Target: Tyrosine-type recombinase/integrase
Amino acid sequence: MHRYQKPWRGAWYYVRRVPTAFAHLDKRNPVRVSANIAVADDPEGWRAARVIDRLDKETEAYWRGLLEGHAVEAQRRYDAARTRARALGFDYMPAMELAAKPIGDLLDRAEVLRPRDAAGSGPEIAAVLGGEDRPDFRLSTLFGEYERLSRASLKEKSEDQLRKWRNPKKRAVANLMTVIGDKRLSEITRNDALDFQAWWQDRIVGEGREIETANKDIGHINRMLRTLERWHRLGLPPVFSELRIEGGRVAQRQAYDAGYVRDRLFAPGALDGLNEEARAVIWLVAETGLRLSEACNLTSETIHLDEPVPYVAVRPDGRQMKTDQSAREIPLLGGALAAAKRFPEGFPRYRHRADALSALVNKYLDTAGLRPSKGHTLYSLRHTFEDRLTAVGAPEKVMAALMGHKYIRPKYGAGPSLELKAEWVGRIVYQVPHDTAS
Model:
């Protein structure tokens, strides 16, 4: 049975007390909702338990909605008061803070209201005399407000990029709530932050979790709190600053040895267990150094086969570019050219689904014994491409232009031509029959 499941008047009911965090918004106490299933028809309560589980989720969503709506309205009133206060020549201060100022400051503010005939205006009185409290967000609303404040920087991200941006931050908030509950942001203390750090230390030692995973959580929370503090002047102390756990390191992806790729990965039949689109993308990454997301999102408009030098153009196309240098043209030779000819309109199966392709290919390579170490992944082929260019002495400017990296010296001219890039890529192309990609 569900923990909030109770028999009442011959039927099964959902019965739950309103949590303290929502009690000021929901005056029902307890919440009591019928599952519309008689106890006589379901004496063990199994059917009713499923209904009550749904009712519980709906009720919690309702409470969160109340809290978020309340916070948004409080924020709207507070922002309006700040704007009015500035228009009248004052910095906005909540009444409690204003009360601690010298009496002259209060008299100056009161004096401003009289000649403007503002004495009867509730909003102007609130603005000048601090009638609106600073909004007091809860931890459960932290990410939503952070996302709202970040909306300008997110507008060019694709849905997949947004998912990757959102998930680690939402996970960090959920982890913190596991440790300290759904506190108001103003109530979070340095001790809470230290408890969170200790919680992660226990997981690192006891569960083998990565130190960098913990540091990312701490960093996300710190950044979100700083952003809300900067925008809303909440008076939040930097309780999550300088809490990184020492000893962490970012795992470095291994590069495949070029000979291993030629003799093992691209051996006849080695990739036959993968579908054609997956095999073609592997060839593209290996022969062009494309990022996996760049390869997966090519289209008929970015694959140019009827040119003196066939090439692909990396463009935003509904996504935010990783760097300003990511937009570039890369020549198609060898297996990459064969792959593009086989799929001249791109790879619809994996468009905006690079993660799914990566998981599929890495699992296949693992099963087929084609990963010399756990550090070798599909993405390693991009690093191998760069190593191969280095081995033949390609100029740094050409390598940067092919890889989409920033060139460290001042930029002059238009950069390496497509023909020049093709000349250097031609020196490292795998000598493997082109029909292997098809």
